[in-house]
Amino acid sequence: RASSSESRGALIVLEGLDRSGKTSQSSRLLSYLEGLGHSTELWRFPDRSTSVGQMISAYLSNKSHLDDRTIHLLFSANRWEKRVTVEVSLYKNFDYQKFQDSNELFSRSDGFTQISLMETQLKNGITLIIDRYSYSGVAFSSAKGLDIEWCKAPEVGLLAPDIVLYLDIPPEKAAERGGYGGERYEQLEFQRKVAKCYQAQCDSSWKVIDACQPIEDIEKQLQDAVLDHVTDVCQPIEDIDKQ
Ligand code: NYM
């Protein structure tokens, strides 16, 4: 991958069990970074707005039933479709020159243009906060008993986060929080397995935050954790690779 010495946006991922507080903390983090003047977007996976996302949503709400591997690959595809999008070459006025030296645009022989959506955002200086990412994919599917290496394989080549913030909550405490919403997976026994599968992926690069603290304390710790990562981000964007 071509490296650029210009500063770029940061890729920040929030992970954790269901009801660990990721979604409200992601919004708070967004406001904080915007307040500091950083261009920031909040994304979430699954992104239920796409057609793949709608299949996932139907599965989660028990309206459809899919094989474990099939749904695993759909979750992954839902990330890939935000990593790379393919457009008719409608970008007639698109400033190709601007992207000349980078590799986020690929012209294809079929007259379509392939755009590395995520990469383009980052290179345009936009910081992305992502509510769930590959680690959810691997944790929830391997908790069902699928081989963890098999689960990781389709994630290889997605963009690697600059920081993973893990909101750590005992499954029992999460279950007490206003109950689960009734979607698939929202059961204590299963969440215990998911917690173990998160632990299996957690390494020293993750920032683990105690999600049982008061909301404001968690918010502050997340702010401190990201601050170093959002200013003058110059390291090249990496792909998730085989570990
Ligand atoms: N989930 C989420 C997966 O099983 N695999 C994935 O790759 C992702 C991103 O979807 N219980 C599960 C975790 C959640 C559920 O997520 C829906 P949310 O954040 O409640 O919309």
Plain-language structure description:
The mean pLDDT is 91. Strand 4 and strand 5 (112-115) form a beta hairpin. With 243 residues, the chain is α/β, with parallel strands linked by helices. It has helices at residues 22-35, 51-60, 68-83, 117-123, 134-142, 148-152, 171-176, 188-201, 215-230; strands spanning 11-16, 40-44, 85-88, 105-107, 112-115, 127-131, 163-168, 206-210. The strands form 2 sheets. It has a 5-stranded parallel beta sheet with strand order 2-6-1-7-8, sandwiched between helices. Strands 3-5-4 form a 3-stranded antiparallel beta sheet. Helix 1 crosses helix 9 (215-230), helix 2 runs antiparallel to helix 3 (68-83) and helix 3 packs antiparallel against helix 5. The chain is built from 9 helices and 8 strands. Bound molecules: 3'-deoxy-3'-aminothymidine monophosphate. 3'-deoxy-3'-aminothymidine monophosphate (NYM) binds next to helix 5. 3'-deoxy-3'-aminothymidine monophosphate (NYM) is lined by residues 18, 45-46, 60, 75, 132, 136-137, 140, 185. Residues 14-90, 113-221 form the Thymidylate kinase-like domain. One of its GO terms (cellular component) is nucleus.
